[in-house]
Design brief:
six-stranded antiparallel β-sheet, globular, 630 residues, alpha+beta
């Protein structure tokens, strides 16, 4: 696990100058790889390029130093991530006559590229972002993994082409701060995060998951391509066969993601996904594994009884951390600003705390992330089906009357996210034009609300158009919803949260459910295998039901609830009020004062709970001041 940086320019640059720029970029991501660094540079009369990395040593501690070169020194790679099938790939390459100088997965990627070129990228099972400079072809290839677990940003202008694992590396070497992207701004306030290929900045982009950049060093042009996957077709005639195959795939994925030369454990929340991952790992190890859970002083949020039950079942060395509001809030600024752009998923605060405490014991943690997307575990999936039936039965005019009548009844004053909160979100998300699912994932402002929040010059009425063009409209099936989540919510929110919070503590997180073969498998199953009546993740639970006590896998889970709505009224109140100062807002020239000031004041006074909206505003303003006002 590492962080990578790169720079290309259509001109000769002195080697010292090039290395200084790369060193500046590397210093920004020292937390991603504190163990060692590595640099490569090459220049001619008309072209210069450099690649660099910071390494967190997990596999091949002694000989895995990067960059790694081909035998003739004509191909070089820097790599961030883990390749879980590198041992089998290496065995095949040795049969084909390849010789290896290290035991690292990085060298396997390089040798595989030498043999198969860009077609090799689809053979990799893992989480990764890497760049390969092929001097023979005069090209640089920059690739990102299937789900987008590892980040990759790029920027191109007349001064050169930059790429990096984190935005801060690129910003650190630009002559001036880029302007705010209208698309990124609108997507953030709708979703509370910004999915690829967008960022908050104009002309800086995220490379989308399962894509690669081909950069021609001679013409100084580049193109972006999807990595073409070749998936197995599963011929399953009975549900029993599907159950058996599910268990086999999950078990093998946990096994492949447990390869490490350093101490490894699991996050164990007590939910279905982390419990299954922990169970599988415990069955594969000859000695007790380490499991880690976070509990809350506020009992309504605490679920440590479930994680204790699983820990006892599998006989793990269980580490339980009970935290209060002070633990969650004391690093708030550092956590929020480390995302380098506005990011308002408040559960990131809890994710950071559990990563920080886990890092004191191990260097790698397996997680249950991705289980909901892969196996159909979200309420919003069957709510999507309800929307389809509701809009068929209820005329649009009648719905508008019902919706208007219920708005006041469902208004809440506190951040309890209970039944009234959920019903209001459901009613507001109802859509007769096929856009329901985009509404339900818009945790911040709905599109019509956004039109009142931003001034005219900052509005973008086509926020989701890029994704609709890729996925299509009128999405009605669970498969449709899962595909939208993979492209938007998983890549833009969940994986960003886990990567940034864990890497900030120099902890590597691996997610066995984020295996492209499992994704392919569940995509071929009948939808009622995923959600059977009201039973979410049905096939996964059936595969492991006998391993747990009766009805354990049917228990509900709350997730990481962080009371940011209350903090905004107490500890963060003065800071928040400074963000709605009239003079500051007028100078900022982004928000409609007649909308944003009452929105914040209503929340502060307790008149109305606007937690998600005001927290998004708070996170944006905090980022804005750090970048443009500091």
């Amino acid at each position: 696990m590492c962080g990578i940086n790169g720079y290309l320019k259509k001109a000769f640059i002195e080697n010292n100058s090039l290395l200084d720029k790369l060193s500046t970029m590397n210093k920004c991501i020292l937390h991603r790889g504190p163990d060692e660094d590595g640099f490569f540079s090459d220049a001619s009369d008309s072209f210069s390029m450099g690649m660099a990395m910071q390494r967190l040593s997990i596999i091949d501690l002694s000989t895995g130093k990067q960059p790694i070169f081909s035998k003739d020194k004509q191909i070089v790679i820097v790599f961030n991530g883990e390749i879980y099938n590198y041992i089998s790939l290496k065995e095949q390459l040795i049969k084909e006559g390849c010789e290896f100088e290290t035991n690292s997965d990085t060298e396997v990627i390089l040798k595989l590229y030498e043999k198969h070129g860009i077609d090799s990228f689809s053979k990799l099972d893992g989480m990764f972002a890497f760049s390969i400079f092929d001097k023979r072809q005069g090209k640089v290839f920059i690739a990102r993994d299937f789900f987008g677990e590892k980040p990759l940003y790029y920027y191109n202008d007349t001064t050169g082409f930059y790429y990096a694992s984190e935005l801060k590396s690129i910003i650190s070497v630009l002559d001036s701060k880029p302007e705010i992207s209208k698309e990124g701004l609108n997507l953030f306030f709708q979703l509370t995060y910004i999915p690829a290929p967008f960022t908050i900045y104009q002309n800086i982009h995220k490379l989308e998951a399962n894509h690669y950049i081909a950069f021609d060093c001679n013409s100084f042009n580049f193109s972006i391509h999807e990595i073409k996957q070749s998936f197995e077709k599963h011929e399953l005639t009975t549900k029993k066969q599907a159950v058996i195959k599910t268990k086999e795939l999950v078990y093998n994925s946990v096994l492949s993601r447990s390869i490490s030369d350093v101490p490894l454990g699991t996050f164990l929340s007590g939910g279905v996904d982390s419990s299954i991952v922990s169970l599988c790992l415990s069955q594969q190890k000859s000695s007790p594994i380490d499991t880690f859970s976070i509990g809350f002083e506020k009992k309504s949020f605490d679920e440590t009884d479930k994680s204790r039950e699983v820990a006892k079942l599998i006989g793990s060395n269980h580490h339980e951390f009970i935290v209060g509001e002070k633990d969650l809030s004391q690093n708030l600024s550092e956590i929020i600003l480390n995302f380098d752009e506005p990011f308002a998923d408040s559960s990131a605060l809890a994710s950071y705390v559990v990563a920080l405490k886990t890092k004191q014991h191990v260097k790698v943690a397996l997680t249950g992330d991705g289980g909901d997307e892969v196996f159909g575990g979200y309420n919003k999936y069957y709510i999507g089906k309800l929307n389809q039936k509701y809009t068929q039965l209820m005329p649009k005019k009648a719905h508008n009357i019902v919706s208007s009548s219920f708005q006041k009844l469902l208004t809440t004053k506190d951040d309890d996210r209970g039944l009234r909160f959920k019903l209001k979100r459901l009613i507001n998300a109802v859509n007769y034009e096929g856009d329901f699912y985009y509404n339900i994932i818009s945790l911040g402002f709905q599109e019509n609300e956004l039109q009142h929040l931003l001034i005219e010059n900052c509005k973008d009425s086509n926020g989701f158009s890029y994704f609709k063009d890729n996925i299509g409209t009128n999405n009605t099936t669970i498969t449709d919803f899962r595909n939208i989540d993979k492209l938007i919510s998983l890549e833009g929110d969940m994986l960003v949260k886990v990567d940034r919070t864990s890497m900030l503590t120099s902890l590597e997180c691996r997610a066995p459910f984020l295996n492209k073969e499992i994704w392919n498998f569940t995509g071929q199953l009948p939808e009622n295998y995923l959600i059977h009546q009201w039973d979410k993740k049905h096939i996964l639970k059936e595969a492991f039901r006998e391993e747990f006590s009766k009805k354990f896998l049917d228990k509900s889970k709350k997730g990481f609830g962080v009371p940011v709505g209350d903090w905004l009224r107490t500890d963060l109140k003065n800071e928040l009020e400074s963000y709605i100062d009239t003079n500051f807002l007028q100078k900022q020239h982004i928000f409609n004062l007649n909308t944003v000031i009452p929105l914040v004041k209503d929340h502060l006074s307790g008149k109305r709970d606007n937690t998600f909206k005001v927290w998004s505003f708070y996170c944006f303003q905090k980022w804005f001041i750090q970048i443009y006002e500091a």
